Amino acid sequence: MFRIDFNKLRFLVCDDNPHMRRILRTLLHSFGAREVYEAEDGATALEMYSHYVPDIVITDWAMPIFDGLELAQMIRQPESKGNPYAPIIMLTGHSEKRRVTVARDAGVTEFLAKPISAKGLYQRILNVVANPRPFIKTKTYFGPDRRRNTNSAYMGPERRVGEKHEVLQQPSLLDKARSTI
Amino acid sequence: MAKNSAKDIEVKAFATHQIITQPNPLRKVLRRVDEKDLDDPVRRAEQALAGLSGEFKDWMTTEVNRLSAAYVAIRNDGFTKDRRDELFRAAHDIKGDAATFGYPAAAGIAESLCRVIEHAPDLEKVPAELFTHHINAILAIVHENTRLDSISVSAELSRRLRKVADDYLAHVNRDRPEHLEVILAPSIVPAEQG
């Protein structure tokens, strides 16, 4: 059995709602985290991301001006001077399948639909710490590997060319999002 | 600690893509513990969250007052993008927070309101009663009821409002299949939580 030494992790939390930031801070401190930085919008979060170099980003989606999706897209810039590989956990009230797909395609690592639970948050953090995925760079995407199942017959326009064994066996982001615990 | 140096990063190039791997930069925070280890960080966090619960009523009141103010601004001066966005965010926050604060029926009603705002083709043409019934129901649940609302009238109210809103959205989107598909798709959140 593994535990996480949260006191060695640095978190960046981005949510425009002060109540949700308070809840997240409470949960993370209770897990043992000491370094939890907070931003109330995406632009501030991006500045703090460059300055504090967090290990894990937890962001809301719906925020004024510069939302969590744009934040994820800005972090996932392969040529940036900062760290484009940090795990991003999208914590959001959006609960539609298409939203999970959009978040995935923006480079989000994990998706956690509200209402938040201590167990759900812990499991997402454990997953990004213990099971990091390789990154994929294509003309239109840079982020964690989005493939979750084997379909050798797939011949769609986004089929990757040049590999024999290229698939990670793991549940899809949607399946994990459906599992709120 | 989060970033590996460039020399640790391995890039395999293929015809259409690159696969980038690196040593797990967070591996040092994983610690093996005995199965009998009694420390339970999740339980600790749940207890801490329970310790905040005394503040939830005030937080929820703040959230519903924000929602109400957002709609009053629209009723007085009409829809603009900013006013529409503020109404949506206020409802969306309640959708996400209310169950945590002990008002699951309010979360369900806020979700229904979010769907109206998101999928009505013309918000100016939405019957005002559809907005006011949603907002008044949330206000009533928070201001007049206890948090034990899930087994009572408020849960039924939530279900009925959702049906009225869904029927309206299905009608006004009958020629917009991309919206209909989203409206009719099931939520990824189990119904009992929402």
Automatic annotation (TrEMBL), chain A:
Keyword check for Phosphoprotein: yes
Modified residues (4-aspartylphosphate): 60
Upper classification of the organism: Bacteria, Pseudomonadati, Pseudomonadota, Alphaproteobacteria, Hyphomicrobiales
Keywords of this entry: Phosphoprotein
Source organism (scientific name): Bradyrhizobium nitroreducens
Boundaries of every Response regulatory domain copy: 10-129
Pfam families according to UniProt: Response_reg
InterPro entries: CheY-like_superfamily, Sig_transdc_resp-reg_receiver, ST_Response_Regulator
Protein name per Swiss-Prot or TrEMBL: Chemotaxis protein CheY
A GO BP entry: phosphorelay signal transduction system
